[in-house]
Amino acid sequence: MDDGCWGENLLTTILFQPKQxxxxxxxxADVLLLANDGQGTNILEDMAGATYSxxxxxxxxxxxxxxxxxxxxxxxxxxVSNLTGEYHWHYDLNQDGQLGLVDLSILIFRSMSE
Length: 114
What we know:
Layout: E1 22-26, E2 50-54, H1 73-81, H2 101-113
């Protein structure tokens, strides 16, 4: 009798090669991973997908959020209004996967440099 897997184990690794920057949502349909509980319980039944941001770290993200040709108070206001709530990758100026005061500091510095 096979005892299956117990504890923490790496089952698979999937590598995606992005073709362009932006956001992508990845969902897996009809996925089965059966528990070794004697009942064959599908432990991935409620598995949700995930959204990922694909960024080109060799290019700095634009700070001109309102696309008026300059970085100013309006852009700072846009960033501040997006600091809470759903993550938007194009406001993540230091590309660390979260919006925060570092992004705001970068934007303020850029606005003063123009």
